[in-house]
Amino acid sequence: MTEGWNRSIDVLLVFTGLFSAVLTTFIIQSYQLMVPDAGDTTNALLLELIALQTNNLTLASSVSIPQTTPRQIHVVNGVWFSALACSLSTALISMLAKQWLQSYLPNMSGSPRHRARQRQERFMHLQAWHVPEIINALPLLLHVALLLFFAGLLVLLWSADLAITLSTWVIVALAYIFYIASIAIPLFYPNCPYKHAVTDHLRVWLFQDSRASPVLSMRSFKNRSEKGALYDARFCNSTSQDIIDATALAWLFSESTDQQVISVALQAIAGLPRDFSALNVLRDAGALQLIEQGFQNCFHKDTTIGLHWHLVDAEKAALFCRAWIKLIRGTGEQWPFAIIEPLWLLQNLDLSRHPDVAAIASCAVALSSFDSHISQWELLGYLSRSASGEIILSQTTQCCLIDSLIECFVRWEMPLAVIEDTISRAVPVLLQVLHLTEELPNSHHC
Q: What parts of the sequence cross the membrane (predicted)?
């Protein structure tokens, strides 16, 4: 991103220098026409003096001292000086922008997490303070300078020669018709190769609703975050670390074209802390749908005879399940029916080989079955067998089981007898689990 901006600014600076030099040459000549010439005044006075001495009244009456400069010259100089101001302003802002970009990429040290957060925080402030918009607007300022230069040229030639004026006007008009068309056409034809920085901003301003234009059928993460963000990086002295982590992950799976990078970013959601407070940023960025698709890619769908799913990567599928469980917390979202069969396949894995994977899959099933107490009892069964030593579950999996069980308790609409029966089953198991984990250093997370 910064490399592309630096290249664009370098081109702008070169063109600005050449244009300013050419424009200055024109201004030097035109400005002299606006200031009264002492030589012309002297010649007029000499002619008048000769006429008086020779008593040639006809010659004396025909001689006049120039008093004012034609209005046309004033207009030309005003337009060209404005064009020079726009050109030099472009150069000034371009130099400032290069300094901003240089400070955006300092040498950082520390852990990968620290460097990632530093990079993401700088990126968020870069967006919040509209640095991309400023850099993208620099060519527009130079285009305005060119337009003013052409306008002054036409005014200067208007009374000199009509043919030259008309030919120049036609060339300028065709050039700017093409310029405006190159900006407008991509608004309605998204596959048009004409690309301009201002087009993206016009598309957002003109088509606020994605359904209003086929161009906005898929909205980028940047536009979503601008509309749905609950913070403004410009007015936060220290942006929440959770928001930084969430936007960094969202940036990865929204902007990257590498499927492996996208998959890793989605799986990383499974490792977010239990008290993570910025899950809404990930949901708004479309993480839930991508996770469901990534989970489906962990299986091979055989359609030769009927429809059979074959597990390809159990550990990766479990990470997608955990990420899905974190994102749907408190939303009431249910597992998609189209991929419920691979979820059941994951749930029925051999407990002696994949106990954590099967338990995580059971959590996803339970959270999608609030109207059935059987799936919730299965969670208690996993906790009970883990407490008795029948199977070995990681502490993370046990926390996920307990969290899922609590989520189900909150959302249950079961008969009172079933709820009481479940509580009577749950209390001894939970007490046994807590007794076994109270000596662990991270037991407070449960």
A: 12-32, 44-63, 75-97, 134-157, 169-189
